[in-house]
Design brief:
This protein has 290 residues and is α+β, with helices and mostly antiparallel strands. 52% of the residues lie in helices and 11% in strands. A 5-stranded antiparallel beta sheet has the order 1-3-5-4-2, sandwiched between helices. It is globular, with a radius of gyration of 22 Å. It binds manganese (II) ion. Manganese (II) ion binds at residues 122, 125, 129, 131.
């Protein structure tokens, strides 16, 4: 029996440096936390790496949104995402990374990717976990932890949303204490599609870079390499072209599914799960490309 775990901690600005020291492993010693094994810290990695200090990342966002800040405002939310230890047993590093990527996709959809300034995975403590920090800035540019996290009830809706989202990928997860079958089917589908789209876009970008590199090599070696060598490069280039076309096609298909999402979800009253499953086709797409 295992659980996917999502926990929020509201933080005022003053704690930013302390939180950063833990998350980014900026201290030489961690006497206060005997769970940390510094010799394993090299195993930690980021899915989102901060460019500035936490304080600067926070201030930059607040400044950009020009939101009102009160002395007691929650300036950032410190999120921990993990699962029961047993879930990680027998999982490869790649599988563990995939788990955190799915979880981050969910969070980014809910709180806005632009609000997230760090997502770091700790492998040097007992159980693998991810720390994600974000500024609670709403779409209409208010700094409001309450609007984003909500009250007790919506916190339990957060847990439901997270559980149902993760369960699509990991059927072994069980819902925690308060099992509440309320979730928005459309939201799950949307997050999965967004994630699939993002992966496909990454593919397209990668292939384009590879093709540019090939062209560069080709133009530099046009006169000093054998015809055979040039033919080989040409062949690889042609293969990349096909790969690129396929990725673009996949992207278009996903976008189309995306625009039909309301159709898939229209018979599902918001808040009820699961009346009907989304159409086979979209599930197949999501499964294949996410
Ligand atoms: Mn940690």
């Amino acid at each position: 029996m295992s659980y996917a775990i999502l926990k929020f901690k509201k933080q005022r600005g003053a704690t930013a440096t302390g939180v950063e020291k833990h998350h980014e492993r900026e201290k030489n010693e961690y006497k206060s936390n005997p769970n940390i094994e510094p010799e394993k810290s090299y195993l930690n990695y980021h899915l989102i790496k901060p460019k500035l200090s936490y304080k600067e990342e926070i201030d930059k966002r607040i400044e950009k949104a020009a939101c009102k800040v009160k002395t007691d405002s929650v300036k950032f939310i410190d999120t921990v995402i993990t699962a029961s230890p047993i879930f990680f047993h027998n999982k490869t590093d790649e599988e563990i990374k995939a788990f955190f990527k799915h979880a981050l996709a969910f969070l980014a959809y809910r709180v806005g990717r632009e609000n997230i300034f760090t997502a770091v995975i700790h492998r040097d403590e007992k159980t693998a976990h991810m720390h994600v920090c974000f500024t609670p800035i709403t779409k209409d540019k208010r700094l409001s932890a309450k609007a984003i996290l909500g009250n007790q009830l919506s916190l339990s809706k957060w847990q439901d949303g997270f559980y149902f989202f993760m369960r699509k990928y990991y059927p072994e997860f069980e819902r925690g204490k308060r099992f509440n079958r309320i979730v928005n089917q459309k939201e799950i589908l949307t997050v999965q599609l967004e994630y699939a789209l993002e992966c496909t876009l990454e593919d397209i970008k990668r292939i384009k870079v590879e093709m540019r590199r090939l062209l560069y090599t080709l133009s530099n070696n046009l006169y000093n390499k054998s015809a055979n060598y040039l033919r080989k490069l040409r062949k690889i280039y042609d293969e990349k072209t096909v790969e690129l076309q396929e990725s673009v096609k996949r992207y278009e298909q996903l976008t189309k599914t995306f625009s039909n999402i309301n159709e898939f979800a229209k018979d599902v009253p918001v808040g009820i799960f699961p009346k009907i499953e989304p159409k086979e086709e979209s599930l197949r797409l999501v499964k294949r490309y996410s």
